[in-house]
Amino acid sequence: MERAAVVAGLGGWVPPTVVSNDQLAEVLDTSDEWIRRRTGIRERRWVSPGQSTGDLAVEAGRRALASAGLEGVDAVVLATSSPDRHCPATAPEVATRLGLGPVPAFDVAAVCTGFVYALATGAGLVALGAAETVLVVGADAFSTLLAPDDRSTRVIFGDGGGAVVLRAGSSTEPGALTGLNLGSDGSLSDLIEVPAGGSRQRSTGVPAKTEDTYFTMQGQTVYAQAVRRMAESVQETVERTGWNLAEIDSFVLHQANARILAAVARRLGRPPERFLSNIETRGNTVAASIPLALADGVASGELRPGHKVVLAGFGGGLTWGSMALVWPRLAAHRTVSPEPAAAATEVGMP
């Protein structure tokens, strides 16, 4: 039996502030009907003033550790594209706040594919014997990067954190990660970006325009790329795993919007009900979307032990990736609570 990284804990957290479509319609040229028709989103959660990606990551990590029955891990990998600061990385502070001691901790930036990339990184640490346990977190406070008057992006994104604990185990046991597929295309990097704030802009010595400090996306082209890349990546992972598409119980894709999920389902020829979705109440939570969808799937009973599951993401870079596992039996821990708490009792809404 080969050594493998096995999912041993799951946790998620979204901030308590609910932002409904009707609230956005009060300040933007939009409506609840327009947003739902184009995205499938009814509401999303946003951070409160002073709340950050690190706060989301800590709460999600705490719940994942509790789910795994652990107080410590050997490493922390945090996927985010909205770090608390440009420098240093957010992960070391998350590890300290969780009381994990001087373990290696670092960030991975792959936007909405970030969680898959971070999972691959954590699994690599386990496979190499560099770690017996790894906390992998996806967290983003992406609302902080959105232009206040941009209807095309402001209605889509929500904030949140999701996490899993990986442990060393056997490649034949439930929860073992397999079939990894990753890819990127930097020639299309300008499709999804925050133009200003990096070394390229800062080295010019020219102050950034205000509009260039916010997130931008070329929606129609991104839609086509997302559908194609996630569908192709899923097919590659299923083949590498030795399964076939008809065997997959649950496809857990990045929650970009409902139309993209439906289009991927059509392209793969699989029933839409096999594709877990929490987009209606979460929005697009970027690196947190896959683990939050897992947590909500466990809460709803849609995701059960023994299910064959494929995870897939697509995001800026462009980047994409996927992997597979047989879903294990995990202790459940709450995703949403009015205030951050040291521990929780069940996955899902309070």
TrEMBL record:
The keyword Transferase applies. Pathway: Lipid metabolism; fatty acid biosynthesis. This is Beta-ketoacyl-[acyl-carrier-protein] synthase III. InterPro entries: ACP_syn_III_C, ACP_syn_III_N, FabH, Thiolase-like. Residues 239-327 form the Beta-ketoacyl-[acyl-carrier-protein] synthase III C-terminal domain. It is found in: Cytoplasm. GO terms for cellular component: cytoplasm. NCBIfam families: fabH, PRK09352.1. Its EC number is 2.3.1.180. GO terms for molecular function: 3-oxoacyl-[acyl-carrier-protein] synthase activity; beta-ketoacyl-acyl-carrier-protein synthase III activity.
